[in-house]
Amino acid sequence: MHGLPKIELHCHLDGSLRVATVLDIARKEGIELPTYHLTELKHALIAPEECTSLADYLQCFALPNAVMQSKESLKRITFELFEDAAKENVKYLEVRFGPQLHTMKGLTLEEVIQSVIDGLKLAEARYEIKGNIILSCLRSMSVESAFEVVESGKSFLGKGVVAIDLCAIEEDGFCTRFVEPIALAREYGYHVTIHAGETGSSQNVLDAVDMLGAERIGHGVFIKDDPIVYQRVKEQQIVLEMCPTSNVQTKAVLNYQEHPFYLFHQDGIKVTMNTDNRTVSHTTMTNEWEIMEQLFTVDKQMYQMIYETSVQAAFATQAIKEWCLSQYPPTIH
Known about the structure:
The protein is an alpha/beta fold and about 325 residues long. It contains 15 helices and eight strands. The protein has one domain: TIM Barrel (Alpha-Beta Barrel).
């Protein structure tokens, strides 16, 4: 699996920091950490396999955000994420983050976004990888804050920013609150992907599509329990950004064997494979695919179909999509 080309559409920047980088930035910027021992710090940054809930899982993000408050750090962390991805043959990566989480030391939203784009561009120049940025609005924040993110990212559309997202704790009916800012985002030209159906509510998936115009759904696991929503997703070919390890950790599913990724694909639902958070979930794209390969019948045809689905679902230019498609089949050493 390591040698195969990969496409990742759902990866959080603040969940994918190198542990050594957290330690290095903290020392350089005088940021207090609970420990300065690499092994102990690793345990603080990686969520346990047995989290009690999504809320429990999300607690691992406070520490990374503390070292993501300067232009230099944001650029470095973004570059390193793309570097890590490139080394496992990821050809295209969409990285998402909440700009407002990185303004605690005075950076403007525009400075935050530009710093992340700078890291992306540096990686593209050095490695055979391409990427784009998705701006996440936190559902735990106000509707006004979502408008701020939409407005701040507008000038970066076509220059690295491609989409808007809603993430964080998922409550029933959250879409109603964010209809206006997401509608404005669509008007400006943002693509839309929404975290929904991760913690029990299949109706949120339907609302994300109908109310917010979601083109893709982050996770969408719980459509498995709702025949009506399941059929809508299948018929409309709504693409699901699935993240098996993360879903096991957050208890969206009890274990890997019960994850619906394989069955969804077999039944014609468009699924894509993603890490969600490389550090917090202690995973890579290679690892996610190897787990599925061990549990289910993942043959070359299935892998290629999902690769092509991921390329077509990417919020990328046609030229980048064609380049990604030309990477398969690869020469595997």
